[in-house]
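Exercise (ungraded).
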Amino acid sequence: MPRAGGSMSDWFSAKKNRRHETVIRTGLFVCAALSVLTTGAIVYVLLSNAVYAPGDKTAFFERVTVTEFLTSTQWKPVEGDRGRFGIWPLLSGTMMVALISSLVSIPAGLGAAIYMTEYAGPRERQFLKPMLELLAGIPSVVFGFFALKFVTPWLLKPVLGLLNLDVSIFNSLSAGIVVGVMVTPLIASLSEDVIRSVPRSLREAAHALGSTKFDVSMKVVVPAALSGILASFLLAFSRAVGETMAVAIAAGGNPVMAMNPLKGSQTMTGFMVHASTGDSAADSISRMSMYAVGITLFLLTLLINLISGWILRRYREEYQ
Amino acid sequence: MSEFVDQPAVSFRQGTDTLLRRRLLNAKVFRTVCMLLTYSSLAVLGVLMGSVLWSSLSRLAPDFLTNHYSMNPVRCGILAGLWGSFWLVLLTAAMSIPIGVGSAVYLEEMAADNFLVRLIRINLSNLAGVPSIVYGILGLSAFRPLMISLQTFFDGTRAINVLGLFRVRILHLEIFDGSVLIGAMTMSLVILPIVIIASQEALRAVPSSIRVASLALGATRWQTIWRQVIPAALPGIATGVILAVSRAIGEAAPIMMIGVLTVASMCPGGIETPLQLLQDPISVIAVPFDQFTAMPVEIYDWSKQPDPQDRFTDVAAAGIVVLLGVLLIINAAAMIVRARAGRRIQW
């Protein structure tokens, strides 16, 4: 019975194969589970340094009350009585930069998305898309340099100087503008995808009813794709909130509440870079405050991203 | 009554004319505005490139690539950052590519639809939105202590030196706080979601007929994945991976958090030329444990350098030109991979 012997060894090799497959499968599962571990580690590190520290370390909120953190309007992360730990100056700085960036990126990104889907021909699109990808690929430090060395001295100072406005070397406006340019490709590509997925029949129906291209774009296509477009705005906003190097270079390091975009401010990310590069001791209050700011940043971006995802799912128009 | 008969006709015509004219004008203005908005982003890109190139001209010379940091802007170079970024990216890629592609293969090809897998998927999409600086905090507070405990371990195993070969090196092996390895571990976490998502998309683009045919011919799950699906998805995976790696080159925030050097006159492992690397390959062992700086960190430092004559501006601009040059080469490689693969594989 040669056949039987053959099938016997086949059976053995198949079994060996299966065991070998289980090992691979487990290994790959570990890889995939690593991402959950990463999130867990981030949360643990933030909590164990900000809220409750195991061992003999003292966490940030064991030295500073949550009430002070959330209500004080001064941020002076120094040891002793002079220390003030109110998140608002950093939060307002962050929000100002992110809002200015939205003022730049929303029109530019949505305009580009509409132009690429509704107007540009295939050849023009083939040129535009890689160019926008190129813009998206430029590192953050480069934008910071551009804001500090070009936008402020060569654009803002002369233009706003005509209006007799005084622009500081470090200012939130230049930081906001470059961050806006940075996140424009994100809005453009995400919005383009959702606009493209609006079925042709809707456009054709609108055209047949006598609509101009403007009517089709703004009254049919954009409303139909609105959930995706809003989600892209929120993602870009959250990216602007977490943006670090450009802001750290251009906005300066002065945590003030005055919402003046022509003066310097400090963002949450800017403070974190500043605190980590300073030569303060590892358990000093300025180092520990970094974790409290980090937790605020983490929760804020997570919240915006979750809302963005929720809008996308909740209000998605389904087309066959 | 006649008024009623006459007037509607006239006003109707006039009405449509002005209305139509206005609507057509509207449409034309809208198109122009959209076009201007699109091209203004590109114009900014052009102005950015132009202004950087212009101010870099005074410092962009061959010795910029071979000089170390100097207080004197005319002599200041990017050598340390160039080597630092090179080793950082090499280690980052070595860690993140296998893990990232492995995760994608598991999620796309093997995973059942259970609670844990759904958790991984949701978690992944949220991780992609975490600011890179938060990963820096993780590196600072988790990986640095890890390295310090590793250091005590290495101190305890001097006995290996007796074996001879690695003697000198291991004797001098010091593990520093802001080492290349910690930086690469941190950076791997930053780009891991990008690698995974790009690889998932590439795997999804492989038609299921390939899998079904392979399974029908008696191949196992893994044989199908390893011999059919991954080769077919490889160009897409490679493109995504290259883009993720180029992100790692430009990223500064997470490695600034772990205490990377901002001013450095040394290259990791003391390797300053490729020739040196060939002559003394053993010196590579020290690289992961050595301190380093990276190009974007140096550019940050130069941009903030207070100099009355603003001479460091030119140095920073020259650094940016080098950084963008490296990124351009990498992206060109990605494009070539995509173009060549596109020609070969057609479903």
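Further reading is listed at the end of the chapter. For now, observe: Chain A has two domains: 2-50, 85-314. The mean pLDDT of chain A is 88.
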